[in-house]
Amino acid sequence: MSLKPRIVNFEETWGRLLETVQSVIQLGDIKRGTWSDRFSDVYALCVAFPEPHSERLYNVTKLFLEEHVDNLRKQVAGAGESLLSQYHRFWQQYSKGAAYMDQLYSYLNQHIRKQKMSEADRNFGAFTDTIEEQLMDIGELALDIWKRLMIRPLDKCLQELLLREMLKDRAGDDTQHTVLHSVINSLVEVEQYKKKQQLKLYQDLFEIKCLEQTGAFYRKESARLLQDHDCSQYMGKVLQRLQEEQLRSRKFLHPSSYHRVLEECQKRMVADHMSLLHSECRTMVRKEQRQDLSRMYELLKPITSGLSIMVEELEAHIIDSGRQAIAGLHGDNIPAQFVEAMLSLHIKFSEMITTVFNKDQLFTKSLDMACSSVVNKKLSSKHNSCRSPELLARHCDALLKKSSKGSSESELDDRLGQCILVFRYIDDKDIFQRFYARMLAKRLIHGLSTSMDAEESMINKLKQACGYEFTNKLHRMFTDMGVSDDLNNKFAKFSQEKETDLGINFSIYVLTTGSWPLGQSALTPFAISQELEKSVRMFEIFYSEKFPGRKLTWLHHLCTGELKLNYLKKPYIVTTTTFQMAVLLMFNNQDTVQYSELINSSLINEKELSKTVQSLIDTKFIEQNHEGPITENTSFTLNLLYSNKRTKFKITTAVQRDPPQQEVEQTHNAVDEDRKLYLQAAIVRIMKARKKLRHNILIQEVISQARSRFSPSVSMIKKCIEALIDKQYLERTTKADEYAYVA
Amino acid sequence: MKVKVKSWTAVATWRWIANDDNCGICRTAFDGCCPDCKMPGDDCPLVWGQCSHVFHMHCILKWLNSQQVHQLCPMCRQEWKFKE
User: Fold this and answer.
1) Chain B residues with beta carbon closer than 8 angstroms to that of A506
2) Nearest chain A Cα distance for residue B51, angstroms
3) Which residues form the RING-type domain (chain B) (predicted)?
4) N or C: which end of chain A has fewer CB within 10 A?
5) Is the minimum CB–CB distance between A684 and chain B shorter than 8 Å?
6) Residue A349 is inside which H or E element, if any?
C-alpha cells in the first residue's frame, strides 16, 4: 500500500471504519491486522485525492459518537437506583474506548492540529473566537460529547445521588467505593484535554455542593457531640471524625479537594467552637492534662492563630509554677536550690512541649519567655533588681570551689552547662558578671578552685553565650595566674643567681590593674614585717629589671602566709592573713604586747587592725588582759595553752568573710557605674553614626544595643543623655525632642 | 623563735609609671589601652622615647609609619629614638 494520495471511496471506507470504531468504543476484540488497516484507512481518507475527506470524516465520527453517547444516556437514565453503577460501567468503557479511538485517529488529529495552526496564522489579528466551532482531537471530541450529552442532561441527578452516597458513607453505611470514586473523578477526567480550568466542571457540579453538605453535616454532628460529651471526649471524637474524613476524601475525591474538605470540617467542628475550646484550655494547662492538651494542639494547629490562647495559657502557667517554686525556696544553700528549681522547671516543660506539642516553635518560644520572666522577676516594686544573677553566680562559685564531696569532671561540666542554660535567661548579665568576677578572683587568689580546667571551660562557656567582650576580663584574670606562675619560676632563678636567701618560701601573684574586681578601698598602710621585707625588696628589683616602666602595688589584705608555731606543746602550721601574721610575729620578742605598740609598728589602720586582733582573740591564739573594749592601752598575751586536734589548719577570719550585704551593695553600685559608662558610649557611637536623631529612636537603639548585657531603664538613658549634653558631646536641635552630635 | 614564717604568698597589682596620665597621641589614659585594642595590660604596652615622652606602642608606631622623612617625637619634635 502506498502512502501517495489517491482517490478514495468515502462511503465504503467509512463503512469499514465504522464497524471497527463501534467495536473499539465498546472495548471489543480487534485483531492487530484490522487495527493497522483501519489506521491506514484514516490516513487515506485524510490525504485523499482530489479532495481530502478529513472534515467529512470528522463530522461523521462526531455524529457516530453523539449517537452512541445518547444511547448510553438513555440506558443510564432509565437505570433508576443503579444509575450510578450503570454510569460507572459505561464511563469506564467509554473513556478507555475514547483513548483508543484517539490513537486510531492519530493521523486525523495531526491533520486537525496542523489546520488549527494555519488557521490561527490566517486569523492573526482577528477575533479567533468568531470561529464557530474549533475542531478538536478525536479523544477530546469524544470526552466533550460525553460531557454535553451525558453529564449535562444528568447533572442534577448525578449530583444528588453522589451526595446521598457520601452521606450514607458518613453515617457508616456501605457504599460502592469504586463506583463513587470513578463517577466523581470522571468529572475531572472528562476535562483532561483542557489547558486551563480543568477542574471547573468538577468544582461547579460537585465540589461546591459537597463542601456545603459536609459543612452542614458536621455542624449538626458537632452540636450533637457537644450535647453528650465533655470537652475532652469531644476533642477525641472530633479527631476521629477528622481522620475518617481524610480517609474518605482519599477514597472518593479528587486530590484538589482533600484539603478543602478537611478545612471545612475543621471550620465546623473546631473553629466554630473556638470559644469553648479556649475556655477549657486554661484548666487543662493548669492541670497539665497531657492527652487533652495534645488533642487540643492537634485540633487548633491548622487554624490560623488558633494556638495563641493556648500558648499564652502555657506561658502563664510556667511563670506561675516557676514563681511558686522560687518563692518557696528557704533554708540553706538557696543558690543551688534556685538553679535546681529553674532547671527542673525548664526540663519539665521542654519535655512536655516535645511530647505534647510536637516541639512547636510557638511553645518553645513561650517557654523561653516564661523562664526569663521567672528568672528576672524583681524582688519587689521598690527594688529595681532581682537576686537571680547573684544566686546563679554563687551557685557557680560553690560548684567550682574545692569541696569535700568530689564530683567527677564530666559531672561538674554538666552542672556548669546547666548554669549556662539559666544564665541565658538572665537579663542583667552584667550583674552576674560582676559577682562572678569577684568570686573568681577570690578562688584564684586563695587557690580555692577545684580545677583550673573547669574554670577555663566555664569562662569559655560564658564566652560562647555572651561574646568575647563579656568575658575578656575573666580571661585576663585567668591568664594572669599563668603569667604569675612563670614569674615565680623566673624569680626563683633570679634569686639563686644573686645568691640571696629570702628566708621564707615566697610566691606572688602579679595582677593587671583594671582586670580584677579588687576595690582599692581596702588598702591600708602597712609596715612590712622584717621577715617579709627582703622578699618584697628583691622582687621589686627583679620586676623593675624585667618590666621597666611598671609599678607594683602590694595588696597586703589579700596576701596569705604560713606560720610555724613553736611555742606550744606540738608544733602547728597555720595559714593566716598577712596582718594576722604581723601581729603574731610581734610576740616573738615579748610575751605581752600593747595595742598602741601594734599600731605603731604595723601601721595598719584602725579598722583592719581591730578586726585582725579580734579574729585572733576569737580563735584563742591571744588573750586580752582586761575585759572591755579595746583601747590603746589594752594589752594582749599569747595563749600558751592553745591546742587543736589538727596540726595544720587555717585561722578563720572575719576579715575574709566580708559582710555579704555590703558586698552585694558594692557590686550593684559598681554595676550601675559600669552601665552608665556603657550607655554613654553606646549613645555617642549611635549619634556619631547618625548625626541627628529623635529622642525615641535614640532610646530604642540604645536599648537594642544594650540588650545582650542588661535591660537599661529609660530614666537611666535619659540621665546619660543629659550628662553627654553637659559634656558637650551632644546638643539639642531647634526641633523638639531631637539631638545632634557635636563633633 | 616562737613564731616562724614558713611561706608567704603575696598579691600585687601592676600599672604603668608614666610622666603623664594620657597618651599624647590618642588622648586616652595610660591605664586604658589604645583605641585599636580592647584590653589594657600586656597586650597594649607603653614605650618610652629617649626624649622621655611616653606613648602607647601601637600609637607611636602608627605615627612613625605615617612620617615619610624624619621620624620625630610628636610632642617635642626631636628625632624619635626608643629608649633602651
Assistant:
1) 7-8, 10
2) 15
3) 34-77
4) C
5) no
6) helix A334-356
Would you state the pLDDT for residue A122? Answer: 60
Residues in B touching A507 (Cβ below 8 Å) = 7-10
Q: Is the pLDDT score of A82 beyond 70?
A: yes
> Would you say residue B41 lies in a domain?
yes
Name the residue facing B1 among A514, A532, A588 (closest C-beta): A588
Tens digits of residue pLDDT in A666-680: 788 888 888 898 999
Q: At what angle do helices A452-466 and A388-400 cross, to 10 degrees?
A: 150
Return the H-helix or E-strand segment holding A174.
none
Q: What mean pLDDT do residues A238-257 have?
A: 86
Q: Compute the distance between CA of residue A38 and CA of residue A60 in angstroms, rounded to an integer.
A: 15
pLDDT band at A351 (very low <50, low <70, confident <90, very high): very high
**A518 neighbourhood in chain B, CB within 8 Å:** 13
Asked if the structure places residue B49 within a domain, the reply is yes
Query: Nine-digit cell at A344?
Result: 527542673
As a whole number of angstroms, the distance between CA B58 and CA B44 comes to 7
Whichever domain contains B79, its CATH number is 3.30.40.10
Q: Write a three-state SS string for chain B.
A: CCEEEEEEEEEEEEEECCCCCECCCCCCECCCCCCCCCCCCCCCCEEEECCCCEEEHHHHHHHHHHCCCCCECCCCCCECCECC
Which pLDDT value is given to residue A132? 45
Q: How many domains does chain B have?
A: 1
Among the partner residues A472, A549, A560, nearest to B17 by beta-carbon distance: A549
Q: Is B68 on the interface with A (CB under 8 A)?
A: no
Residues A438-481: tens digit of each pLDDT: 889 888 888 888 888 888 899 999 998 888 888 888 888 888 89
Q: How many CB pairs under 8 A join A and B?
A: 142
Domains in chain A with CATH codes: 10-155 (1.20.1310.10), 207-306 (1.20.1310.10), 482-655 (3.30.230.130), 661-741 (1.10.10.10)
Quick check: A658 pLDDT over 80? no
**Cβ of B48 under 8 Å from any chain A Cβ?**
yes
The boundaries of the domain holding residue B27 are 17-84
- Angle, vertex CA A724, rays to CA A721 and CA A726, nearest 5: 115
Cβ A508–B13 below 8 Å, yes or no? no
Task: Quote the DSSP letter at residue A449.
Answer: B
Contact A552 B14 (CB under 8 A): yes
Residue B8 lies in a domain: no
More confident residue, A344 or B70: A344
Verify whether the Cβ–Cβ distance B14 to A506 is below 8 Å: no
A448 — contact with chain B (CB < 8 Å)?
A: no
Nearest chain B Cα distance for residue A616, angstroms: 14
Most confidently predicted of A1-5, A407-411, A492-496: A492-496
Between strands A635-638 and A592-594, the pairing is: antiparallel
Q: Collapse the DSSP code of A662 into the 3-class scheme (helix H, G, I; strand E, B; otherwise coil) and give the result.
A: helix
Predicted local confidence at residue A653, as pLDDT: 63
Residue of B nearest to A518 (CA): B13
Does the distance separating the beta carbons of A563 and B5 come in below 8 Å?
A: yes
Query: Are residues B8 and A504, on separate chains, in Cβ contact within 8 Å?
Result: yes
Check if B69 contacts A (Cβ < 8 Å): no
Q: Per-residue pLDDT for A126 more than 50?
A: no
* Cα of B49 to nearest chain A Cα, Å: 12
Question: Taking 70 as the threshold, does the pLDDT of residue A538 lie above it?
Answer: yes
Residue B68 lies inside a defined structural domain of this protein: yes
Are B41 and A476 in contact (CB < 8 Å)? Answer: yes
A396-424 core/surface letters (b: 16 or more CB in 10 A; e: else): bbebbeeeeeeeeeeebbebbebbbebbe
B chain contacts of residue A542, beta-carbon cutoff 8 Å: none
- CB contact under 8 Å between A512 and B42, yes or no, is yes
At residue A129, does pLDDT exceed 70?
no
- In this predicted structure, what is the pLDDT of residue A582? 87
